[in-house]
Amino acid sequence: MNRLSRHSAISLLSFLFSAICFMTLSAEEFYLVEVRSGDTLHKLSEKYLEDPSRWPELHEYNNALIRDPDLILPEMTIRIPYRYLREDIEVARLKEFKNDVRIRESGEQSWSRASAGFGFKVNDGIRTASNSYAEIEFERGSSVRIDENSMVFLSEREKVVALRRGRIRCGVGVITDSALIEPPPGTRPDFLARVSDDRS
What we know:
Shape: elongated
Order of helices and strands: HEHHEEEEEEEEEEEEE
Structural class: alpha+beta
Radius of gyration: 21 Å
């Protein structure tokens, strides 16, 4: 192999490696946190990762936004990879409900009666019976209204729910067995989604 073709091969391999790294990073799913007055990367690492010494990991995923890790400003939005997030972080809250509404926490087998203000974590579920409804609200005001005879689980993706049965009015993305409805970034969606008896 001559010098020119060897240089071309190395350049091509370097380009492919960079592209793969970029695709992996861009496919990462993030939990978004709005910085409040007094927050530091140490405090956010303790709250969301359970270990303040892991602040460099937060900085790594936010280095385009945060030039100086000792200076983060209110109203900045920090990205935290879901795979780093501690399991007990609430991602949504039960805003209101009527009649027979049940909750299933992640890892549990049984459904329990809903209670006002219940905090949902990733993979928790909610279901409604006849003549019942519920509304859950995410941070920053996005919400999902769950109609009667419906079942929804909170997804591992940011502001996306998994609709397993029934109908919802949505202000977030929706995953079903046959579709992914993901609103464009920066929009405030409002649409109906329904799963038919054949799961379509």
